[in-house]
Request: fold
Amino acid sequence: MIRRLLKNVLGENFTENNAKLATVNFGVILLMFVLSGIMLLFLPEQISILHMGETYYPIPSVLGVWLFPIIALIVNLLFIRQNRLTKMNSGVFVILLAVMMFSYVNMM
Amino acid sequence: MKHILCKILLHNKTHPVVAASFMIIGAYIGYLIWYILDSYLPAAAADNGYVFVSLISVWLCAFWGIYQLPDQLCMNRRIKMILCYPVEAQTIVSVVAMRIFILQSGICAAFLYPFFLFEAHRRREAVLAMLFCCILTGVMDIGVILFSILLSRFCAYDIVGYAFVVFQYGSFLVLAWLAGNVVFALWGYIAGKSQAVPKEQELHVALWVWAVALLGLTVLIMALRFAAEHWYVRGYLNVQDFRHREAGKRPTTSHITHPYFLLEWKRVTRNKELIFFSNIKNMITVMILSRLLFYNFSQIGLTGTYVEELFLLMSCCSVNTISSTAYSSDDNKSCYAFLPISGQRLFLWKTIQGFLWGEITVFLFWSILICLERLPVLSAFLLLLYGTSMNYVCSWLGVLIDLKMPRTVNSTNELLHGNISKVLVLITATILTVGEIFLSSRKWLPVPLLPFACLAGAGVAAGEICFWRFCKGVFYDTDS
Reply:
């Protein structure tokens, strides 16, 4: 039952490398870069990229705003290197895009 | 000709998009590190930040060199194809070494280019630091190549493969183990020395350092030329002999007492990368994951005695790649359908194998815990009991999820990297542990957290054993 359900959701090619998915991922990452560039106009001068308890580590928005797209780019290259491009992983990039936008809206 | 040789030997063509991505990532990470050093370090330490960055870049290059150079020079089967052509051994070595050195220079450049931006008045030092990193990387590369040639030439053909395994992974482990201490200690030492040396002597010291580095490089290059000319080809063929020896060997008749254990043992030990890389990866994941879980859950009020230790041991148990890829990484699974193999017993041995490998990690982290924290004997014993019971719970669950997951035949790297089953086990184990901590922190239970967690872990493990015993039909792999 679990297998049938997962096959329906994720498809048969669960671990298959797929050039189309790589293009989709690069497209999502490019969109992340573009949106980050646009959001740079609305964000405060400094944003926090890390916090440990009550201690925050702010950096200039011009630098910090590219962190999400760069992380997505590294993850995508790792997926390509390991032949692990799947629909689910492309979905993760879309979720990362949504999380990025949510965090930017919160910072505004 | 070198270009064609490079194409034949390395056989990889980097797409421009991927190359551009690497450049963007390198440029960003290099700049971010410099910004963090410049902003968050004390002024005196930030002045010597370039020493720290140089050491980090050389350390990364050393990792890459140790990983790639022996593989590409001594184990690359494509070299055998070109040995029948009039190509000199020195040309082969130089082509491979240069290709890897170019990438390492790129790493050094990515880490040190912000020196020009942050310290615009110290351009001379920036150029020298970059050059020095490249020379040091070159020296290390030549050292690795020389050692590989010596190993391949002077080790007997039946042990040369094992010698390379020890050399590569031993160096890899030593580098990883010493990374923090050595990099920081060297940084402190160099920074201290540079402040202690008067300005007039600075030039004198710098000249000596450069002279030694250049002399070392020259001597090593000469030694490499000699080794490549006289020993490389014979050494390479010696290594290839080790690789192909098994093919001609006639298997001896043997009586297999534990076929299920043997099947699982072969699955795990077939891939040498698994044992080293997977375990190193697991250890790093455990350290990062346990801290991440502890910080996040303590922020929402889940605190108490031994919470950090429980998260640490839970992380050890839940990142068990051997159990979570039990079926998807098994090349023999296509044979199981027509062989008289009990699916139930196979499941049990897959669980036991995963449990035993996972127990090594659990025991290692438990030993570190009791050495660092000097826990009472009873607590130490209960923590080990918790780790062991959770290890069985996670192994069982990992094997079951992997049995029930959709999979394809070609999943060669899952044993090394893990798959979605691993994530599902991690989520389940986290929910279980957080539930235990939540119940204990709200004082809804009459027993302290640690004994309760042990009881819960042992209870779940007992439930899993009962399920395995009485629900035979669930464990047959209908997808093989």
In short: The radius of gyration of chain A is 17 Å. Chain A has one domain: 15-107. The mean pLDDT of chain A is 78. Residues 32 and 97 of chain A are 6 Å apart (CA to CA).
